[in-house]
């Protein structure tokens, strides 16, 4: 006497599967370097208003992926921010 039909599989007893969610990729607009648009050859450390756009409230420099600045101008920007800090135009730490 064998009871082969007593064993139930997990797929037969489980609830029906929900349909998979569609994955939507968020397409963001390509950020364009503002200094390339202005065709800037140099970034002046004395232009504090312009430099503050690229520095957080805590005083940290924002990365390229957040600002959209190209690599060439990011290096120039970093140098200008550091010079402005030394001359006390920008704070080393936030207020």
CATH level 4 superfamily:
Ribosomal protein S18
CATH class: Few Secondary Structures
Task: Give the distance, in angstroms, between the N- and C-terminal Cα atoms.
Answer: 84 Å
On the 0 to 100 scale, the average pLDDT is: 83
Number of strands: 0
Give me the number of helical elements: 5
**Helical content class:** 25-40%
Supply the number of structural domains: 1
Category from helices, strands and their pairing: mainly alpha
So what's the overall shape?
Answer: elongated
> What is the annotated CATH architecture?
Irregular
Order of helices and strands: HHHHH
Q: Let me know the largest β-sheet.
A: none
Describe the overall structure:
The protein has 95 residues and is mainly α. The protein has a single domain (29-95), classed as 30s Ribosomal Protein S18 (Irregular). The protein has helices at residues 10-13, 34-37, 48-52, 64-67, 71-86. The protein is elongated.
């Amino acid at each position: 006497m064998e009871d082969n039909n007593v064993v139930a599989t997990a797929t037969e007893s489980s609830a029906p599967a929900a349909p998979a969610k569609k994955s939507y990729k968020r397409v963001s607009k390509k950020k364009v370097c503002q200094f390339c648009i202005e065709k800037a050859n140099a970034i002046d450390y004395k232009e504090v208003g312009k430099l503050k756009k690229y520095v957080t409230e805590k005083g940290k420099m924002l990365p390229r992926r957040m600002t959209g600045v190209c690599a060439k101008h990011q290096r120039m920007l970093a140098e200008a921010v550091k010079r402005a800090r030394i001359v006390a135009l920008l704070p080393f730490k936030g207020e």
